[in-house]
Amino acid sequence: MRRAIIAGTATVSGVVLLLGIKGHPDTAAASTPIGLSANSGATSSTGSTGSSGSSGSTGSTSTAAGSGSPTASSPSATSSPSAAASTSAAAKNYTGSAVDTRYGPIQVEVTMSGKKITNIEVLEYPENSDRDQQINSYALPQLNQEAMTAQSAQIDAISGATYTSEGYIQSLQSALDQAG
């Protein structure tokens, strides 16, 4: 009888603990399409959003629907007039080198106004599998945010996205090296 009470209590406790587990803190970021552009807040570019799996496209980044391979649009293209109007004449774009990672290449483009990073756009990233898409849907926006805040490539890697983080940081540093 005593064992039955202990077993019942342990089972109830285990169920309560399982039901109390919260989901991943970035579940909102997972539903955000990966057009992956971080800007300093002057204007947000809201180009058309399509979807291919869990990744979509906004701005000038595009994914080939059904192909499973990442594609990049022209580095200096902007899709909305408001984004082009908000970019001052002194702003320049620098495209980092495409860094090969274990899961595929990563490449970023940085928009600089003077010595300040005003926008970072991920042009190419691994998206060959559902897992790649899941990881990049939360990791790349965090990396963009960290880099914008730090105004450099001296940022921390995202846990669970080590290869993506390393490739992102290397490509970002390459773009910043071009900027001087």
TrEMBL record:
Annotated transmembrane regions: none
Record domain FMN-binding: where: 102-179
InterPro entries cross-referenced by the UniProt entry: FMN-bd (IPR007329)
Annotated Low complexity bias: 40-91
UniProt GO MF annotations: FMN binding
Entry-linked Pfam families: FMN_bind (PF04205)
SMART domains noted in UniProt: FMN_bind (SM00900)
GO cellular component labels: membrane
Region ranges (Disordered): 39-91
Protein name: FMN-binding protein
